[in-house]
Amino acid sequence: MANQKLDKLDKQILRLIADDARIPFLEVARACNVSGAAIHQRIQKLTNLGILKGSQFVIDPEKIGYETCAYIGLNLRSPEKFDEVVEKLRDIPEVVECHYTTGDFDMFIKIYAINNHHLLNIIHDKLQPLGLARSETIISFNSAIDRQLPIMDIPVSEEDED
Q: How far apart are CA 50 and CA 38, in angstroms?
């Protein structure tokens, strides 16, 4: 597992950049008491391990006109077409997440829509033609918690333990 390759410096770096992805590497280096080159190397290592998946600005969907957030559980008529359906879901820009799941649904998606009417059009015009046996839509009124995982809970490698 990748997390077994993390040490205290990796965790410290992750804490700092999780708090502020725009923090200059030199500031991270000073806080960690190492060189800027060491930070660049560690960031590259964390990226290569797949722990860091790039950086991005987070856009508030509501501020740009997307007032409806919905989670939709999907059951496919032909579950063997999962990969094909996922590729078609990628072509629907309002779909921002897609998960294969256990339980009542084959997959679960998260959608942002301008309003409920737009959501209905997405479901009717874009999702139903994918070969759904059934779907269930849950509209989110508000996100009460939206955060990164706490870095303090990441295990460190055995040689780093005191």
A: 18
Model confidence pLDDT, tens digit, residues 90-122: 999 999 999 999 999 999 999 999 999 999 999
Strand partners for 16: none
Please state the three-class secondary structure of 110-150 as a single string. Answer: EEEECCHHHHHHHHHHHHHHHCEEEEEEEEECCCCCCCCCC
**pLDDT band with cut points at 50, 70 and 90 for residue 12:** very high
Q: Exposure string (b/e) for 105-128, b if CB count within 10 Å is 16 or more?
A: bbbbbebbbbeeebbeebbeebbe
Task: Confirm if 124 and 58 have CB atoms less than 8 A apart.
Answer: no
CA distance 130 to 106: 13
pLDDT for the residue numbered 74 = 97
CA pair distance 118, 138, nearest whole angstrom: 15
In angstroms, the CA 16 to CA 28 distance is 7
Q: Sign of dihedral through CA atoms 28, 8, 2, 103?
A: negative
Name the nearest CA neighbour of 9 among 135, 151, 129: 151
Q: Mean per-residue pLDDT for 33-38? A: 94
Which string of DSSP letters, residue by residue, matches 35-70? -HHHHHHHHHHHHHTTS-----PPP-GGGGT--EEE
